[in-house]
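Exercise 7.
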Amino acid sequence: MAPVIIAHRGASAYLPEHTLPAKALAYAMGADFLEQDVVATRDDELVVLHDIYLDRVTDVATRYPDRRRPDRRYYVRDFDLEEVKALNVWERVKADGNAVFPGRFPVRSGHFRIHTLDEELTLIRSLNETTGGTTGIYPEIKRPAWHREEGVDIAPLFLSVLDKFDYRNRDDNVYVQCFDAGELERLRHDLGCKMKLIQLIGENTWGEAQTDYKALRTDAGLRQLAQTVDGIGPWTKQLYELGHSAGAPVSTGMVMAAQELGLAVHPYTFRADDLPPGFATFEELVSFFVGDLAIDGLFTDFPDRARKILTDLRAHG
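Solution. The predicted structure, written as tokens, is:
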């Protein structure tokens, strides 16, 4: 079975991430799933945004210069939905104001807005209805422990929105992902979530959650995960290493170990303009992960290019 293509924040290589135009473009490019990162506003509305912060992708600092916290960041949780939706969204910038990916959509240009999870799921459902498509959703609960510290339990709100759109069961066209292993256990065993769950695996230094990702990557850690989740979403660099001779990439064995336990493997993030060590082209990168490692799916900012590579690989056997 061909790996599924997950549009990472939409067609984010071409339009500002997590905007409805970026999602519509990814849909048109043939992505199998569209990703939604979910955070909560001050009035407990769920919006689609990669960070708990607003300042790297909007004009919030100009509009609300007095609303930043002591760490000089602007948090979604400090704004009501009406305020958030009035912000201009643009291509992601670094702390110095320069584009993270200079060759992408021009920064601080265009007219884009933040939208709710409800609005995005409405768009996807409508596109499926009008085109006869079957594109699925791949939402992530962002920083659930942090949200609880901020006074909101985001998981039940999240499940309620998905239930409204008939996403409830394992066979539904949805994967629910999270970096927090404890939250995924809570979803499955306490909140009765029957949908497919994906454990995202980062590095302990990233501070995504109080989860020991190094331990999860061991055989024992994967066996433990298999009792709760249906798959893993590891960082690409965790799945290969460079050989000692010519520096060619070789498997770390993690993909096979996970798949032997019945876990799907959907690594992130495949970018043509940010290639990891050992790969000269995007085609080479995708071909290695699909052909040599036999992954089950991939997160990419370039769903169109990924689709073409998969089509070419099938055509050449």
